[in-house]
Specification:
Blueprint: H1 35-54, H2 58-76, H3 94-102, H4 109-121
């Protein structure tokens, strides 16, 4: 008997995300990744954008920065309307909980916005 992994499919809504080429999910918090995992996506994209910029690959760097912004917008969806930080209960994966436990301050509203704005301010160019 062969055991195959479960396959999940999802489609991003046409009106989601901050940029036409970098969009994740709809208006509700993700059911696929928790906020810690989304923050990792933002970190990875941001680091890759810096490498692309150093190599002179502006188009790739811009796409990666937009993806980082989109991932940070996913983290923001876990913020309560009146709260200042993503609640610890929002982290359900081992990886996400580890990211949260290492530095819970990264999930404060203001910090998420500052990092998002950094990526927007350091955009090498904006595709048409």
């Amino acid at each position: 008997m062969t055991l195959l992994p479960a396959v999940r499919t999802w489609t991003a809504p046409a009106d989601a995300g901050p940029h036409p080429r970098s969009r994740f999910g709809g208006p509700q918090p993700s059911a696929l990744l928790d906020p810690g995992e989304w923050l990792l996506v933002a970190d990875w994209c941001g680091e890759a954008a810096e490498v692309a910029e150093r190599q002179g690959a502006d188009a790739e760097a811009a796409d990666l920065r937009w993806a980082a912004v989109a991932a940070l917008e996913e983290v923001r969806k876990f913020l309560p309307e009146t709260g200042d930080a993503v609640p610890e209960a929002a982290f359900w994966s081992t990886r996400g909980r580890t990211v949260y436990q290492r530095e819970p301050g990264r999930f404060r509203r203001r910090r998420i916005e500052v990092v998002r704005d950094f990526h927007l301010d350091h955009m090498p160019w904006s595709p048409a």
